[in-house]
Amino acid sequence: MKRTTSPPQNKTTQARQNHAEEHSTNARTLIRPDLTPRSLTVEAEYVNRLLGLTLPPKEIVDLLKKMRYDATPDKKTITVQIPPYRTDILHPIDIVEDVAIAYGYEKFTPQVPNIYTSGAQSPTETRDEQLRDLLTGQSYTEVMTLILTNKEHQYARMNLPDEDAVETKSSVSSEHTAARTWLLPNLLSVLEKNRNREYPQRIFEIGDAVTPKGKNNHRLAAAVASPTATYSSIQSDINGILHSLKLDNQKPQPYNHKSFIQGRCAKIPSPRDPTKPLIIYGEIHPHVLANFNIETPAAAFEADLDLI
Q1: What is the CATH number of the domain that holds 210?
Q2: Chain CA centroid to CA 32, Å
Q3: Residue 121, class by beta-carbon neighbours within 10 Å (0-12 exposed, 13-18 middle, 19+ buried)?
Q4: What pLDDT is recorded for position 23?
Q5: Does residue 259 belong to any structural domain of this protein?
Q6: In this structure, are residues 80 and 67 in contact, taking their beta carbons and an 8 Å threshold?
Q7: For 152-175, what is each residue's pLDDT tens digit?
Q8: Is 153 within the bounds of a domain?
Q9: pLDDT for residue 125 is more than 70
Q10: Quick check: 110 pLDDT over 90?
Q11: Using one digit for the tens of pLDDT, what is the confidence trace for 166-210?
């Protein structure tokens, strides 16, 4: 009796067989990995406009074939079959780039633009730099904190009722489940982490918060932790800010905010909308200080720079 054996398989053959596997599930056959080409339609006018050329669709197809694409021309469009290994093709602009490569960069004629632009700092950044210089001159140190935080940090620890905020989905950390709606809680957190350092501590931050509707809100906040931190001391710093912003005519008004001591809090109304506070400031409430484990008096202010 003669026994027949199949020839031994080398590692390459075995790897190729294992590369594409068939799975039968409920009368369906799934082949993995899926090597079916993706299809993408690109307008010839789009290609020519970006490259400054006048190539007909058929010539664009010829160039794409040089880049190992299968492509079919139409009157105004080209349907491109993207090989499965070209995972870098995400947008029609990627096809345009490959057309340019196949055409040859050396064939493009450089042209000097007939217009010029000059770079300049945006008015917002100019104002921010002005405020940074002013606060640094007032012995403040700038800090930069994360825009992601959590609602407990933003509201409960600040002696405020829970409110809406932009929240993250499936957050890895319970510390970063929402976008901050104002900056002051983060500054108090910095003071909490540095409570074993020498006083006085004077810090500020200029940055964005996010409104509950998902809109960026540019803000400035500052905090002072010191045995001599009072409403009057923070008021003098705000006077310098108002003078720098040419808002000397904006006068303080009494204001109630649960994060500050009642009767030791005020607001500066916005010149654009007097019903909204441009700046709120005062002495931090003892309950808030206790929530952040801060054992020295603190005063702070926060400004909505979008209201200037």
Answers
A1: 3.30.930.10
A2: 37
A3: exposed
A4: 56
A5: yes
A6: no
A7: 999 999 999 988 999 988 888 888
A8: yes
A9: yes
A10: no
A11: 998 888 888 899 999 999 999 999 999 999 999 999 999 999 999
| Whether residue 127 is found in the same domain as residue 63 | no
For residue 264, what pLDDT is reported? 95
Structure tokens at 33: 């990995």
Q: Please say whether the beta carbons of 204 and 135 come within 8 A.
A: yes
Same domain, yes or no: 274 and 167 = yes
Mean pLDDT value across residues 20-38: 73
Q: Are residues 148 and 285 in the same domain?
A: yes
Mean pLDDT of 139-154: 94
Instruction: Find the CATH number of the domain harbouring 49.
Output: 3.30.56.10
Q: Which residues contact 20 (CB under 8 A, 6 or more apart)?
A: 31, 32, 33, 35
DSSP string, the chain: -----PPPPPHHHHHHHHHSEEEEETTEEEEES--PPEEEEEEHHHHHHHHT----HHHHHHHHHHTT-EEEE-SSEEEEEE-TT-TT--SHHHHHHHHHHHH-GGGSPP---SS-------HHHHHHHHHHHHHHHTT-EE----SEE-HHHHTGGGT-------B-SS-S-TT-SEE-S-SHHHHHHHHHHTTTSPSPEEEEEEEEEE-TTS-EEEEEEEEEESTT--HHHHHHHHHHHHHHTT-TT---EE---TTEEEEEEEEEE-SS-TTSEEEEEEEEPHHHHHHTT--S-EEEEEEEGGG-
Mean pLDDT of 125-149: 95
Q: Please indicate, yes or no, whether residues 46 and 135 belong to a single structural domain of this protein.
A: no
Q: 86-90 — which CB contacts under 8 Å span 24+ positions?
A: 89/38, 89/40
Q: Do 170 and 268 belong together in one domain?
A: yes
- For residue 188 the two structure tokens come to 């108090």
Range(s) of the domain holding residue 100: 38-106
In a shared domain, residues 57 and 139: no
